Structure to design on (173 residues):
């Protein structure tokens, strides 16, 4: 039998000659039902208030976590951006220095060749030398390099000497 107002107040007891006063019993049962409802209600209210408090604390905590994560993400993004800019600047500076050094070496080479009385190398010879050097440094076999140079440049008998020089300079002789 459920314990609620209806089951408490509507409970019938057998009648006896010398029993309790029916009115007093009914009044007592109403009082018991009132107390039960009040206690169940206050317990439910207290539980509901506790749940509301827990939810409010969880929402505050979640908001704090999100705010910290956003702050951290902005800081990390800023640091990464600065690092990328610094790296780009260093690479650009190094590339500029390398280009300046290449130009200086070209000038030195031209001066040396002039001093030797040979003058600057023909454009075809310089281009072939650069291609041969790249092939040597990339590990291309000497035979394959010779075939490629024959296809792209008109060097004639100079091709073998050029390849000898380049492969020796590249340490692949």
């Amino acid at each position: 039998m459920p314990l609620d107002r209806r089951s408490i107040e509507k409970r019938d007891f057998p009648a006896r000659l010398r029993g309790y006063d029916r009115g007093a019993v009914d009044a007592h049962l109403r009082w018991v039902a009132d107390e039960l409802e009040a206690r169940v209600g206050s317990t439910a209210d207290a539980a509901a208030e506790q749940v509301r408090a827990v939810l409010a604390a969880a929402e505050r905590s979640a908001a704090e976590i999100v705010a910290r994560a956003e702050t951290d993400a902005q800081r990390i993004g800023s640091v990464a951006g600065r690092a990328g800019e610094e790296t780009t600047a260093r690479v650009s500076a190094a590339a500029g220095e390398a280009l300046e050094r290449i130009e200086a070496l070209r000038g030195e080479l031209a001066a040396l060749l002039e001093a030797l009385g040979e003058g600057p190398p023909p454009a075809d010879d310089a281009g072939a030398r650069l291609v041969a050097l790249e092939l040597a440094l990339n590990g291309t076999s000497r035979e394959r390099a010779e075939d490629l140079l024959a296809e792209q440049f008109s060097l004639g008998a100079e091709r073998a000497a050029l390849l000898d020089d380049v492969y020796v300079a590249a340490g692949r002789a």
Observations:
- Helices lie at 5-9, 22-115, 123-137, 142-152, 158-169.
